[in-house]
Amino acid sequence: MTLEFPYRIDSRGRSAEREADARIRQMIEQVLFTQPGERVNRPDFGCGLLQLVFAPNSDALAAALQSTVQGSLQQWLGELIEVEGVQIEHVDERLQVSVQYIVRRDRERQLANFSRALP
């Protein structure tokens, strides 16, 4: 946990911490790298990002990936964040995803980077 910036006192009279931001980042990562059908009680959860990576590379595929990922993030996390942009790169055997978003709670702009080795 890190201290809130700008510094402020929370409702308990202590230094406010930023644990909510770390939780949001973890939830974004779950949406990105969970395959639809992987969760028993939520078969439509996830975005299928890892499945689409092995399709032939093209501008149309890149646009479809960005649209699919952005739509999934808005569907599952739309109450918490407003997605501004998604950047997806395939570098060697790694998939790198950057998500720029605004946290609705405090309107703070965030950039989260994720990297995953491809199977």
UniProtKB/TrEMBL annotation:
<protein>
    <recommendedName>
        <fullName>IraD/Gp25-like domain-containing protein</fullName>
    </recommendedName>
</protein>
<dbReference type="Pfam" id="PF04965">
    <property type="entry name" value="GPW_gp25"/>
</dbReference>
<dbReference type="InterPro" id="IPR007048">
    <property type="entry name" value="IraD/Gp25-like"/>
</dbReference>
<feature type="domain" description="IraD/Gp25-like">
    <location>
        <begin position="20"/>
        <end position="106"/>
    </location>
</feature>
